[in-house]
Write a structure and sequence with these properties.
- The chain is α+β, with helices and mostly antiparallel strands.
- It has two domains: 2-285, CorA soluble domain-like (Beta Polymerase, domain 2); 286-355, Magnesium transport protein CorA, transmembrane region (Methane Monooxygenase Hydroxylase, Chain G, domain 1), CATH 1.20.58.
- 53% of the residues lie in helices and 14% in strands.
- It contains eight helices and seven strands; from the N terminus they run H-E-E-E-H-H-E-E-E-E-H-H-H-H-H.
- Strands 2-1-3-7-6-5-4 form a seven-stranded mixed sheet, sandwiched between helices.
Amino acid sequence: MVRHLKRHAATKGDRPGRVVFVGQKKIEKPEFSIINYDRTELQEFKVGSIEECFPFRDKPVMSWINIDGLHDVSVIEKIGSHFGVHPLIREDIANTEQRPKLEIGDDYIFLSIKMLYPNEDENRIISEQFSFIFGENFVISFQERSGDVFDSVRARLRDTVPRVRFMTSDYLAYTLVDAIVDHYFVIMEHLAVTVEATEDDLIDDPSPDDLATIHDLKRQLILIRKATWPLREIISRLERTENPLIQQTTRLYIRDVYDHTVQVIDTVETFRDMVSGLLDIYLSSVSNKMNEVMKVLTIIATIFIPLGFLAGVYGMNFDTSSPYNMPELGMRYGYWLFWVLVVVVSMGLLLFFRRKRWL
């Protein structure tokens, strides 16, 4: 949280609309890829500069321009200026800590959401801001790094008869949002496995590592919640907007994404309750474990109280020549009788504890 506040404090006093990169540099140099298609033909290629993307604004076919890397704000300024994007939206694109939001313009729509995917090596969730602008015949997407969750979308575009090739830009935008939301379910499945495994460990043998896992799960759920809660309102607003860029045929698909988003949010809330329950289970298990230890120690101490008394009595230094000496000291089998008494007292106490169901 402190790191995020410092990033925002760095832009204090700047004029509105000034594009300032907020975040971490995750790629050395911006990369530009283009998918140009219509119903009969598809072209897929990469270009070396942002200026080579400008001609696709006025082409009659659909163009998906993807930009990896946000640290070079000149790229955002140039493409925003050429495509008529408002300076405040350019500022939002460069701010990777931006809350998911929707802005509807006259001839374009801007959407910024969080793209999540699991890092199997470090067992954590990677969050990346994904922003895109779509107009009548183009979609421009902005990512922090190379690699995303859109392989299925690209595969559908490469197909000869996909629905997306016959639809307008709003449908392509829908498929991108749908791919991100569907990947939220992958994240939830990943967390479900961790939650179940942690719950089993807590019941069998709780350890401090389990407590660290619980706190890590809470942080990950907070991350997912921050990404999904604003998205529900955004998609609902996108589905209800009267902007001509949203075709009536696409609204049904957007409503389906809305249902998926609500399902993800419900799952997140369920997992939050489960993780809170895991913390209670951990504390109860540790308390029960401590009670078992204390019970054993108490029983041992209780058994040794009478034994210590006997040992103390017969350990006193009495003069055997005195007429007031202890009579047992002169017994032939006194030593062995003492140990028999010790065993009898110990066994008697153990039977008493068992009868009381303390053992």
